[in-house]
Amino acid sequence: MTRNLILKKSKELFLEKGYSETSLSEIARACNISKGGIYHHFERKEDLYIETMISILEENGKAVISSIENETRFENAIFEAIEQAIIIRTKYINNYNKDCEKTAYFGPVSDAIKKFPEIWEFNNNIYKNAIDTLVNKIILAQETGEVKKELDPYSVAFHFCSIFEGIHLVSYYTNQKFEDKSRLVISSFWELIKN
Q1: CATH for 1-43, among 1.10.760.10, 1.10.10.60, 3.40.50.2300, 1.10.1270.20?
Q2: What CATH number does the domain located at 44-193 have?
Q3: Residues 119, 129: contact at Cβ < 8 Å?
């Protein structure tokens, strides 16, 4: 119970303030425990941070990948994946990074991926899993006639992931709403690959 509370409060604080600006004393106060109570569960601040950030990436990755896996048709899968991206982005802007609307910076999660090799590796594995899931879904969609057979499934999956990651920047640079731009870009992508 205490460990889960520590992870919950550290998530809130790390996302709001980042790694360097968040102290273990501050997390302990938020949990209403002593700093020693944190050390009972985590040897170092770095360990707590890594576990916290990995849990965020895992939660988000599962939401997107399961939306792709659960849909029967590929068209529905890509649109559901974008809806999940919208939900995730909205959750983090509303709860943690209110200035995100004014910037292309993704905050502490991006910092974590760059700074800690364990987090980068975990994120890399999420992407490998997502691409593999997409490739399998595309092959199935080609077999059923939903997607053009002449397209390379890996390239289509990579394009989708590039769009998925790049929509935030496109909406920022064109000064358009993320949700609207996301749906528009995925609609265009679908028109290009559908049979």
Answers
A1: 1.10.10.60
A2: 1.10.357.10
A3: no
Instruction: Give CA–CA dist 172/139, Å, rounded.
Output: 33
Angstrom distance (rounded) from CA 166 to CA 153: 20
Question: Which pLDDT tens digit goes with each residue over 95-118?
Answer: 655 554 444 445 677 788 889 999
With a CB cutoff of 8 Å and minimum separation 6, the contacts of 22 are 10, 13, 14, 16
**Closest Cα partner for 13 from 44, 56, 60?**
56
Question: What's 102-163 look like in SS3?
Answer: HCCCCCHHHHHHHHCHHHHHHHHHHHHHHHHHHHHHHHHHHHCCCECCCCCHHHHHHHHHHH
Q: Residue length, the chain?
A: 195
- What tens digit of pLDDT does each residue of 11-70 get? 999 988 889 999 999 999 999 999 999 999 999 999 999 999 999 999 999 999 999 999
Return the CA Rg of the chain: 19
How much is the pTM? 0.83
Assigned token pair, 48: 């707590």
